[in-house]
Amino acid sequence: MLVLLFILFGAMAIGCALAVVAQRNPLYSAISLIGVFISLACLYVTLAAPFIAAVQVIVYAGAIMVLVVFVIMLLNVEEEEHRRPRLRFLVPAAVALAGVLIAEVAFILVSVQQSPVLPGSSTSDVGLTQSIGSALFTRYLLPFEITSILLLMAIVGAMTLARRGGLLQSRDQVKRGELR
Amino acid sequence: MEPQLSWYLALSAVLFTIGMAGVIIKRNVIAMFMCIELMLNAVNLTFVAFASFFHDVTGQLFVFIVMTVAAAEAAVGLGIIIAIFRNRETLDVDEASILKL
Amino acid sequence: METNLLSIIIFAPLAGAAINWLIGRRVRNERFVATVACGSVAISTIVAFYLAFNSHGALRTEEPLFDHIWTWLHVGDFRADFALAMDRLSGTYALFITFIGFLIHVFAAGYMHGEDGYYRFFAYLNLFMFAMLTLVLADNFVLMFVGWEGVGLCSYLLIGYYTNRKEAGDAAKKAFITNRIGDWGFVLGIMLMFLLTGSVSFFANPAAGEAAQTALSYFKTAPVDPFTFSAIFAGGATSVAMLLFIGATGKSAQIPLYVWLPDAMAGPTPVSALIHAATMVTAGVYMIVRCSEIFVHAPTAMFIVAIIGAATALFAATIGLAQNDIKKVLAYSTISQLGYMFLACGVGAFVAAIFHVITHAFFKALLFLGSGSVIHGMHHEQDMRRMGGLKKYMPITFATMLTGWLAISGVPIFAGFFSKDEILWKTWSAAGMGSFAKVLWAIGAITAFLTAIYMTRMMVMTFWGEERFRNVQPIHHEHEEKNNHHGPVVPHESPWSMTIPLIVLAVLSTVGGFIGVPYAFVNRDVNVIEHTLEPAIAKMPGSETTEHTDEHAVVSTADEHAHVGEERLLAGVSVAIALLGLGLGWVLFQRRPLMQMPRILENKYYVDEIYDKALIGPIETGSREGLWKIFDIGVIDGSLHALGDAVTELGRLARWLQAGFVRAYAAIILVGALILIGVFAYFGFPLAR
């Protein structure tokens, strides 16, 4: 049963991922990426991580991708033009490098498979919200706080970047007395 | 038969690879950004799989933090993209190639 | 016997050179410079005479005088010190070198008057005296070679003294390079000798603690080399002798390395007199006589020496017949007379060779200085075709040159007669060469005949006849002078500073021969020079007893009488030849002084041109095309350029990596990451087993 679910959601994830890369229109890529997120969330559920699955959908699919779609619409992005002559070699190069990476991972996995590892059962009480919460606020408090500062930096950065005229212009404007 | 840890890891590797290839292949900045997100998610999958199989919540906490960072990065990154677009009127990353020898 | 006075002989001129160079250049007073220069040589002369003739002097005792100045090279068995040694041979040489050098210095003080580089001239001249005396007084081959090179250097400096004339610089270079070619042979000879004998010293000097046998004494007890051609390459005495002889050919202007001497006439006349007549060119003869022990054990070498000497004598005499520049005539005459000296060495008559060196120094210096006086009086005109009738304008010069002329032609009682006749007699009677000796004698006799003719031609063209300098000549004037006279020059006699040395040398040319009167002439044993030099010179092996008794025994055997009679007869023949030549020349040239001589002789058999085409041309082409273009530019520069280009290419390739495209950067980062993962995956996994 779990195997079937794994295969189903795995295939969906891979298919949507390929669609992200293959699509010319960035909007279609965005939609495909949402598909990837949903399928990954389902996989998290099968891995006994319901909280993470929910957060995945809320944050990634619901917030980040919405933001991306906003930007795409704002900038009125169109389909990619035809490939320019230069740098065409990168496409086959990327595919080749991808192959190399897959090969290396396969080698690693095959080597590890031979070492004894306890196959754990999928059901456990690790992923419950309660356990995450208690670990987050006791053992991992420091990363939590630092992450909040990180978010603060992101806010400041985003605001600075999105200001009309950019950074330098505002400084000149302040000098000239146009802005206070 | 249950899904093995290595299956999850393999899936994660494949997703990561696809995202990596996409970063190199795509010319649209936003598309490139999305492929980076894909890579981050593949890593998330790895963490969750390990957390599940080793009965340790640390993996999932990592995912939590990663997601936060991804969100922050998305905000700032999209801001940069908008700034680039304002300057160049195009989202083709090949146009931004002044920093060279 | 040790004495410190010997070093004065060589260091006085060196000090004179230093003073003139450092102080004379500032002071710029001709009197000062001349006094220092002549004074230093005078000191050398006085000390040399004292050391030679005092009661323990070099010419009185059998033991040489030593002066060990400084231990220079002392490595194991090899010892070559800065040490002087005056024995009979080097004492004789030192005497006439210093004395004639002194006379020439006095002459030059007057001749070079008004020159801008007056101090420079005398500094170089003194330096030359230092080098020449070192050469002659050295007690080992290496120090002699130092002197050898030193005189070559000074010759270069002095020939090229007129720095504003290209032909002077070219002549200087030619002299130096040709000498160098000879030096190659000399050095190889020294090395081979060291290999054979383990020493490079001439004497066993007890003061220097030398107990081993010297280079020359080794050969004394060695067997005589066979008289074959292959002995030259056998690595024994003959090889050493041949190599040393190559050095002598260069320095003493024999075939094939004589070509520098005529060109060297581009230097000032005192230089020609001192260096290229009296002293430097005789260094080769000195060296051979010093190494007589080696040569007498190498009959093949002596044979070749004799042949080359005779050939050179004849060859140069024919060329001298056709030259129009007064100095060139004397130059070829010098080469010819040097040929005589080598001929003498070749037949084993070393004493005769030295005797001729001395008399030749007297009359050749006289002739050169006389020609210098003529040139000076004619305001630096050197072409004899524009002289004539000078005897009434320059009487003293004329009178002195008269004696020189008679001396070189071999007229009796003058010096040249005795020495030249001695050589011819010894050639005729040479043992070990059979009838070939007669052939050599014939060559010598013909040369004597030609000598008389061309010297007469020179004298007649210069001093007798129509005063051609009064006409405007259509001949192109080659020399560019300081004084460009438009119109006829009026010759004048030279000042006393120039005529007094001429007079002294004339006296010596007249009476100088009497030190070597052979027994045969006066039936008495008064051959001073033979007695003096005997201890220093090797005897031909096998003739130890016979030669000694030949001349001095009063026993009258038929053989004895025949010898003496033969000698007198040959002397008579020599006189006849000399007078004939004089007469013929007088008759021919008195009538037609400007008679055109055969062109081939005038152009010196085109030897210089042949050398140019055959030797110098290929070397130049080889250097230019091969060494320069192919090796220097192609290989050396090429490899450096290639290195630079390689780095540039590498940079060009590396620049591709940074084209500014973000995706390319990402791909490169990926490649790096994959390599890292691969390395860790492959090598790190044994940990997991």
Helix content of chain C: 55-70%
Q: Which residues of chain A sit in consecutive blocks of at least 5 with pLDDT less than 50? A: none
Structural class of chain A, please? mainly alpha
Rg of chain C, Å, rounded:
31 Å
Report on the biggest sheet of chain C.
2 strands, antiparallel
**Average predicted confidence as pLDDT of chain C:** 83
Uncertain stretches of 5 or more adjacent residues of chain C: 473-486, 543-558
Q: Can you tell me the CATH superfamily of the domain at 1-79 in chain A?
A: NADH-ubiquinone/plastoquinone oxidoreductase chain 6, subunit NuoJ
Inertia-based shape of chain C: globular
Q: Overall mean pLDDT score of chain A?
A: 83
Total DSSP E strands of chain A: 0
**Which strand order spans the largest sheet of chain C, edge to edge or round the barrel?**
1-2
Strand content of chain A: under 5%
Strand-and-helix sequence of chain A, N→C? HHHHHHH
CATH fold-level assignment of the domain at 1-79 in chain A: Four Helix Bundle (Hemerythrin (Met), subunit A)
Tally of domains of chain C = 4
Binned, the helix content of chain A reads over 70%
**CATH level-1 class of the domain at 1-79 in chain A:** Mainly Alpha
Largest sheet: number of strands, sense, barrel closure of chain A: none
Strand share of the residues of chain C?
under 5%
